[in-house]
Amino acid sequence: MKATDTQGFTAGGRNPDHGHSHGSADAPDSPTAGTHRIVAALVLIGGYMIAEVIAGFLVGSLALLAHAGHMLTDAVFLVLALATMRHSGRSTAEHTYGFHRTEVLAALVNALTLWGISVWVLIEAYRRFSMVPEVDGQILLVVSSIGLVVNIAALWTVHGAAQKNTSLEGTFQHMITDLLGSVAVVVAGVLVWAFGWHVADPVVGVLIGVLVLMSTWRLLSRVVDVLLEGTPEHVDLYALCHKLEAIDGVTVIHDVHCWTLAPGYVALTAHMLVEPGYEANGGHESLLDRVRDIAYDEFNVQHITVQLETSAGRCLERHHVDHLLATARAPT
Q1: Between 20 and 30 A from 56 (CA), which of 17, 18, 138, 156?
Q2: pLDDT of 238-286, one tens digit each?
Q3: Do 69 and 53 contact (CB within 8 A), yes or no?
């Protein structure tokens, strides 16, 4: 795989689409690891969410309805996790990266939908503050207590799956937030049932609505950053480039792009200018091994494509990372 001026390669080995790993489906980070646990958690959350909506309308509880909206997010994320495990890594000639971005697009729709739910909850809470309706505190307490148990069971179930598949970490963290909302609904049930404080119901509804807005704002920010192909927060591009330039035989690295294809799937492309005669000296494989070690192990990048160059004369791409070129080591 030689060329006079340039040489390209895709550093495989740890990209899930390339099939270099032949572990079992239950191995850690396997695309299907913990599928049965996710299905179980989805049944728990989806079933209780429906019951919560019915109970919320029957007893007139805004807190139950708001929490059901929050649980909708958990259900959507679990469905996305299942879909991602099954389909996202299947690349085709028309979609060479597979369908990883479907998770991002669905998260965008989910966030906007939850904003609509949250706005409705806040408007309804404002209306109820002027004339607080009576809520059946006993039913509210019973339903919310069952919901707390369901949330804990679902969280424990997904935690087991997240130990095998790191892509579920975001879903697991979101479900922890949902558990806090469930605790708040239980508190509202106690206050209404024991003390007759019916205002606690819309107050908790507001708290959950604000909680949903905050969590979906963070989600929306991450989604927009992914769609704009921003550099992932955990990747220090300066440090990565300097480490690559410190490899023996490398003069400068330029035309660097680092972005997130989907949560947990980071891609990196770059042009690397090597010293004249480096390839002839047999340093090709050792350089590629070192690039893989740095990008994979130190910066958690999953997909790497690097173009090696012995001369920048025929490189037609715009070298737009001027701040990296300015701090790069001078050619020897």
Answers
A1: 156
A2: 888 888 888 888 888 888 889 988 777 899 988 888 887 665 455 566 7
A3: no
| Cα 315 to Cα 253: distance, rounded to the nearest angstrom | 12
Mean pLDDT value of segment 50-72: 90
C-alpha dihedral (164, 169, 171, 176), degrees to nearest 10: 110
Provide the terminal-to-terminal Cα distance of the chain, rounded to the nearest Å: 26
Give Rg (Cα) of the chain: 26
* C-beta neighbour count of 167 within 10 angstroms: 22
Distance CA 131, CA 259 (A): 51
Q: Each residue of 192-222: b (16+ CB within 10 Å) or e? A: bbeeebbebbbbbbbbbbebbbebbeebbeb
| pTM of this structure | 0.66
- Say which amino acid occupies 129: F
Q: DSSP label at 100? A: T
The structure tokens 């904003």 sit at: 115
Q: Is 321 left (phi over 0), alpha (psi -120 to 50) or beta?
A: beta
Name the one residue in this structure whose structure tokens are 């591009």.
237
| Identity of residue 4 | T
Contact 141, 190 (CB under 8 A): yes
